[in-house]
Amino acid sequence: MSQTPTASAHQGRLTVGDAAPDFTLPDDQGGEVTLSDLRGKKVIVYFYPAAMTPGCTTQACDFSDSLDSLKARGYEVLGISPDSPAKLAKFREKDHLTITLLSDPDRKALDAYGAWGEKKNYGKTYEGVIRSTVVVGEDGTVTHAAYNVKASGHVAKLRKDLGLDT
User: Fold this and answer.
1) Active site annotation includes 56
2) Which of the residues 14, 35, 56, 102 is marked catalytic?
3) Beta-bridge partners for 75
4) Under CATH, which number does the domain 24-31+40-161 receive?
5) Using N-to-C axis directions, what is the helix angle for 154-161 and 54-72, rounded to 10°?
6) What's the confidence (pLDDT) of residue 4?
7) Cα separation of 76 and 45, whole Å?
8) Burial class, 131, CB count within 10 angstroms (exposed 0-12 / middle 13-18 / buried 19+)
9) What is the pLDDT of residue 122?
10) Residue-range domain boundaries for the chain
11) CB 3.0-4.6 Å disulfide test: which of 3, 16, 89, 97 passes with 28?
12) What whole-number distance in Å separates Cα of residue 57 and Cα of residue 101?
């Protein structure tokens, strides 16, 4: 008899060489984005806990500030959180974000990418979004995966790790 994992079961984290799980999620502008539609491009998929919080704002602004140079190197950027499309639209407007923001309230992508799980904060343990970044190559496989990343300085570190600032 096989067991069905519960909603809180932690999915395994992705590693380099894994096939990136496909997803279709609503964006903040009334459309949908499907990862497999971006084949042929490199895609930075990053997961963050909540729009309009200090760390998530820092990270989203850093990605937006870096977007033109990332696109020039063949990268797209997708930011995913459990927030509603309406909240993401407010986030975009308030902070003048240029990256693509996707809504994952059912946690399908968060779970598939291992970006939802147990967290500890001030001695309390709870379930939530694990700030993570996965880079998907043109062929749909994972080329870089980082979990429990820091919000500030993450984009600069990612650019260095990807060899973009040489």
Assistant:
1) yes
2) 56
3) 42
4) 3.40.30.10
5) 30
6) 33
7) 8
8) buried
9) 87
10) 24-31+40-161
11) 89
12) 12
